[in-house]
From TrEMBL, chains A, B:
One of its GO terms (biological process) is DNA strand elongation involved in DNA replication. GO terms for cellular component: cytoplasm; DNA polymerase III complex. Residues 248-364 form the DNA polymerase III beta sliding clamp C-terminal domain. This is Beta sliding clamp. Keywords: Cytoplasm, DNA replication, DNA-binding, DNA-directed DNA polymerase, Nucleotidyltransferase, Transferase. Confers DNA tethering and processivity to DNA polymerases and other proteins. Acts as a clamp, forming a ring around DNA (a reaction catalyzed by the clamp-loading complex) which diffuses in an ATP-independent manner freely and bidirectionally along dsDNA. Initially characterized for its ability to contact the catalytic subunit of DNA polymerase III (Pol III), a complex, multichain enzyme responsible for most of the replicative synthesis in bacteria; Pol III exhibits 3'-5' exonuclease proofreading activity. It comes from Desulfofarcimen acetoxidans (strain ATCC 49208 / DSM 771 / KCTC 5769 / VKM B-1644 / 5575) (Desulfotomaculum acetoxidans). InterPro entries: DNA_clamp_sf (IPR046938), DNA_polIII_beta (IPR001001), DNA_polIII_beta_C (IPR022635), DNA_polIII_beta_cen (IPR022637), DNA_polIII_beta_N (IPR022634). It is found in: Cytoplasm. Residues 130-245 form the DNA polymerase III beta sliding clamp central domain.
Length: 367, 367
């Protein structure tokens, strides 16, 4: 293999696929990145067997071929190369590559590419297009509520469902739940319900934040999901299992409603959390029949009392939250005002936007 | 004590003095910051008994007084206050303070101020003024060579000396040495030689980077050094002991001289260090009687070969350096070109600027 590329293009591709590298894998080759040159295109690819990312780059190919190079070294070296034309030439007998720049060169040992796992082929499946900005917003507003416990895999993913042109994402770790619905009038088919790994979506979100693509093409097959951008493909396994029936946790017997300015609420909760106990992280919200609520907390260092103007209707009550969980839920909201619907001091609390397209549910804690 | 201040002024003062807070001190009060209000001035002060920093702020004082507040909480709370007028009122009986903003308030427990250590008074001593930019440059170019071994305290400081209007700073950890000399024609007296703690100077450098002061007033007494800025005073103990005679380590029998572009050199050493052995961190420099030198390194992952154009005269030789130490020395240099003077493959290497005002000495390592 032999090709010529600029530093910046190559660095972008490597940094993109790096997110799928598995540095601690039992298979050493998975700590590497595949480089495959053909037809004046370079494919740069990494996979940890669950998530695969590949990036397509236009380069000047002098000799086709492929090699796997250790991600740790190749990223650091390419990052520090001068901004000049760089020549890559592999030695297929030694499984090494020579990188030539100016009068200098680096030589890195790699692996034979034929041992590198293939990515699953893109078969026919349920395919739809979605605007990148809508998709990013949906991910941002739900991903915080995914769990991290690998023993309960269904909770580590986001549930995707399309019914009657409504695309719905749901995430829950059982302590909290976030749900967003977007109307997509161009989608005629239905997607019965799949669970996409949170790790995949969090890496995808980072990639989408650094691309210019306006649309993303999504294909769902029996076991995989494919996210196709102009120059980047992301392939992930789906999580198997039955997603819990979340409809019954959405509180219905609302006894108090609060409408509140989101930025005021966030700043007050942030301050109150500074003086919440380091173990329980509890903060207290006092809702009276009046035009403000009080958020308070105390620990050995002192206490904080925050008064925030609200629109309030319903029964007076006191409710305790884990301040970190409450902050996560508030920071995911994308509107100026937020509605809190309370069903009692130890019953689930509903946070929602005015149009109800976004809602999140938070379990209070006991005082 | 009762005063009114804006958030930003107070935050700046607290963040400035925070560098002298001793969070893990056996004396709990030293984890606190002193606030003292009098004459429409607020003094904010912290000390770890070796270094003291105080900041003077114009505030509206309603009632004079003083209190010590735990730095951990007070910094976080003030950082998150709204940008509004803030009222502070202490309760001297409870040793606590109430911070009022909008309709909210925080109450923090503190300590009685009379238990807080006094800073030493500014007695008569050797006093001189120096331009902040020159002083910062001198610190930046030497501080990297100070040691960290508390069992050999003289090596943890920078040696200051003024003789015949030449201000000289020297730092060495015995593996390397950095020395800078500035001509200060306005200083008529002489300073025989003191050792200023590296920690003090590193905090001072951060403070100088965030102030607008053009001059700094330095006073040296028997055991202390005072750095006086417009609104900030920094007081530090001096390190006792005899500074080593460093003159004899400056190499004299030079067998080869190299003139090299600093940025080229730094980039090549940076790349070569990526493939130096993670244990030894050695890189090799080959100097031939030619117009370039070669920097190379290798480890289990591969090898790097860097050719850099130079102006060379003298004997050919191969020399090995610890790449981190070489990088530290190069990054401290403040000129476009650097001169290397070699006295043999295992003898000290001299790095200097053209005017010889700055020099640093680096011990090679054995291959």
């Amino acid at each position: 293999m032999k090709f010529i590329s600029t530093k910046d293009n190559l660095l972008y591709a490597i940094q993109t696929v790096q997110k799928a590298v598995s540095p601690k894998s039992l298979l050493p080759i998975l700590s590497g990145i595949l480089f495959k040159a053909y037809d004046n295109t370079l494919i740069v690819r990494a996979t940890d067997l669950e998530l695969g990312i590949e990036c397509f780059l236009p380069v000047k190919v002098i000799e086709t071929g492929e090699i796997v190079l250790p991600s740790k070294y190749i990223i650091d070296i390419i990052r520090r190369l001068p901004d000049t034309v760089i020549e890559f030439e592999s030695n297929d007998y030694l499984n090494s590559i020579t990188i030539k720049y100016k009068n200098s060169q680096a030589n890195i040992h790699g692996f034979a590419a034929d041992e590198f796992p293939m990515l699953p082929p893109l078969n026919d499946g349920f395919t739809f297009l979605i605007s990148t900005s809508i998709f990013k917003k949906m991910l941002r507003q739900t991903i915080f509520a995914t769990g991290t416990d690998e023993n309960r895999p269904v909770f580590t993913g986001i549930h995707f469902q399309i019914l009657e042109q409504e695309f719905k994402m749901v995430a829950t770790d059982t302590h909290r739940l976030a749900m967003i619905t977007e109307h997509l009038p161009l989608i005629k088919q239905e997607l019965p319900g799949i669970i996409v790994p949170g790790k995949t979506l969090s890496e995808l979100l980072k990639i989408l934040n650094s691309t210019q693509d306006e649309e993303i093409k999504i294909t769902v097959t029996e076991n995989q999901i494919f996210f196709l951008l102009n120059e980047i493909n992301i392939i992930s396994r789906l999580i198997k299992g039955q997603y819990p029936n979340y409809h019954h946790v959405i509180p219905k017997d609302i006894i108090a409603k609060i409408k509140i300015k989101l930025s005021d609420f966030i700043q007050s909760v942030e301050r109150a959390s500074l003086l919440s106990s380091s173990i329980s992280q509890h903060i207290r919200i006092d809702c009276e029949n009046s035009d403000f609520i009080v958020i308070s907390s105390n620990n050995e260092a002192g206490h904080i009392y925050e008064e925030i103007p609200v629109f309030f209707e319903g029964e007076a009550l006191q409710i305790y939250f884990n301040s970190k969980y409450l902050m996560d839920a508030l920071k995911a909201v994308d509107s100026e005002e937020i509605y809190l619907e309370l069903s009692g001091p130890i019953n689930p609390c509903l946070l929602r936007t005015e149009d109800r397209n976004y809602l999140s549910i938070l379990l209070p804690v006991r005082p």
